[in-house]
Amino acid sequence: MKIYTKTGDKGTTSLIYGERVAKNDLRVEAYGTCDEANSMIGLGLSTLPQEEWARDFTEVMQKVQTVLFHVGAELATPQGKKVSWMLEDKDIVFLENTIDEWQSSLKPLKQFILPGGAAPASALHTARTIARRAERIAVGVESVNPAVLSYLNRLSDFLFVAARYVNHKMGISEPVLHEKTE
């Protein structure tokens, strides 16, 4: 099978079920942005140390990546068509439970932190901002499953805590917002 089809050479692409839309259609923007967030998560995972906690962390993150892939597929399904795999409340609850678990080992925030720290944490902070963009775009998609919006909203919170958790596990101090100097 060839990887290139040439069917998109004129600025259109196919949704699931074959419906052709412009490549800048909101559905394409939304699922493409989910893919971008997923890729950034993968980049972050590729830079983790080879330690047991990192293997456990990677396992959790790959579950999230799988769900995020399916969120993209749901966004790529035209209105009125059946989705082969539908997001469920349990997927959102998984994010919330993991946030609570990881956050219990972190110091409470007393000031704003800046994105950064260890390389994998920085990538997860970037993935968080991409997930927020995916959410903003998905809001405009006609008849989007409300669970998709909830998942993307919770995902950005999850990625924020995941970045903090990685910095904590790697013994890296989180960069903090400095007061304005004159």
From TrEMBL:
Task: Supply the EC number(s).
Answer: 2.5.1.17
Q: Which residues form the Cobalamin adenosyltransferase-like domain?
A: 3-166
Q: Which GO terms describe its molecular function?
A: ATP binding; corrinoid adenosyltransferase activity
Q: What class of enzyme is it?
A: transferase
Q: Which biological process terms from the Gene Ontology are attached to this UniProt entry?
A: cobalamin biosynthetic process
**The keyword ATP-binding appears for this protein:** yes
Q: What UniProt keywords apply to this chain's record, in alphabetical order?
A: ATP-binding, Cobalamin biosynthesis, Nucleotide-binding, Transferase
Cite the annotated pathway: Cofactor biosynthesis; adenosylcobalamin biosynthesis; adenosylcobalamin from cob(II)yrinate a,c-diamide: step 2/7
Please give the InterPro entries that the UniProt record associates with this protein: CblAdoTrfase-like (IPR016030), CblAdoTrfase-like_sf (IPR036451), PduO-typ (IPR029499)
What is the reaction catalyzed? 2 cob(II)yrinate a,c diamide + reduced [electron-transfer flavoprotein] + 2 ATP = 2 adenosylcob(III)yrinate a,c-diamide + 2 triphosphate + oxidized [electron-transfer flavoprotein] + 3 H(+); 2 cob(II)alamin + reduced [electron-transfer flavoprotein] + 2 ATP = 2 adenosylcob(III)alamin + 2 triphosphate + oxidized [electron-transfer flavoprotein] + 3 H(+)
Protein family according to the UniProt entry = Belongs to the Cob(I)alamin adenosyltransferase family.
Q: State the oligomer form and interacting partners.
A: Homotrimer.
- Please give the name of this protein: Corrinoid adenosyltransferase
The record lists the organism as: Fictibacillus aquaticus
